[in-house]
Amino acid sequence: MRRALNVGINNYPTAPLKGCVNDANTLSSILQRNSDGSPNFDVKLLTDPSESVTRSKLRESIEKLFAQDCDIALFYFSGHGFLKSNGGYIVTSDYKKYDEGISMDEILNYANQSTIRNKVIILDCCHSGAFGTPSINNNGLAQLSDGLTILTASKDSESALEISGGGVFTGLLADALYGGASDLRGNITPGSIYSYIDQALGAWDQRPVFKTNVTKFVSLRQTTPPIPLDELREIKELFSDATEEIQLDPSFEPSSNCPNEDNCEKFRILQKYNRINLVIPVGEEHMYYAAINSKTCKLTAKGYHYWRLAKENKL
Question: Looking at the 3D structure of the chain, how many domains does it have?
């Protein structure tokens, strides 16, 4: 069972945010299904102003999210964040001065005390980097329990950026979940999402913050692999050794004067490997000319990684 709580809160007396509800709705739509239409997360959506997301209501929902048994619990929040001398807060609809919302430390405690194996917290709000940072409330200690991952839009001292009515961070997060952060098996993990967002941002852009205490990343969504897994597994058959170079010749190319059916089938798969940077031709720029001119092809470093996974029956 996979459960997610998505929250988008627009209300804030001094600076209403227009895109928070849309961001929460977008993430809910993506997380509910994998790319092949199969069920993924069972999402509970809390938005404002459709329903007032008060401190008590949000606190109850967060407590239930991390209290009930499941394989993975994911909490996503889009809205205002507030930084005080005693730590960060996510702002709720019933915001009042000196009572702004729910402490990030409190949410961290819910997650830390949970027995759920995998817990993911994603925040797109100002000062979100304060989540999991040492504060007065926890005696200067910020410990993440086993299986907990935190991904935030900004550092604790920064405001989260918006563009065209939506969070810049959430826009990239959505692109990552749609498939931008997928590996060759179709897995999208918190680590690959962070890497995707980090690479998409320039050196002068706001940087996301990533904190984790896991021994193995869990997949947040499955997409269609760029190559069928059965063909990916063939890499260990085509290359008997990771350093082997496969000798090509015109019989591998279907348009040549002497095509061989078996060789052409091998070449079809090798060309797929080439398109996803698992294999490169040696001495030629393109695989076609490597075959026509009887050159070789070999595994890239990435190709060696997947060859090893296939060899160890991990694909």
Answer: 2
- State yes or no: pLDDT of 164 exceeds 60: no
Given a cut of 50, whether residue 251 has pLDDT beyond it is yes
pLDDT at 156 over 70: no
Residue type at position 57: K
Question: Do 98 and 20 share a domain, yes or no?
Answer: yes
Q: Are residues 145 and 23 in the same domain?
A: yes
Q: Are residues 213 and 275 in the same domain?
A: no
CB-CB contact of 160 with 153 (8 Å): yes
d(CA 143, CA 1): 26
Average pLDDT over the chain reads 89
Question: Within a domain: residue 75?
Answer: yes
Longest dimension (CA), the chain: 81
> 233 and 157, same structural domain?
no
d(CA 53, CA 59): 10
Q: Is residue 248 part of a domain?
A: yes
What is the C-alpha R_g of the chain?
A: 24
Q: Percentage of residues in the chain with pLDDT exceeding 70?
A: 89
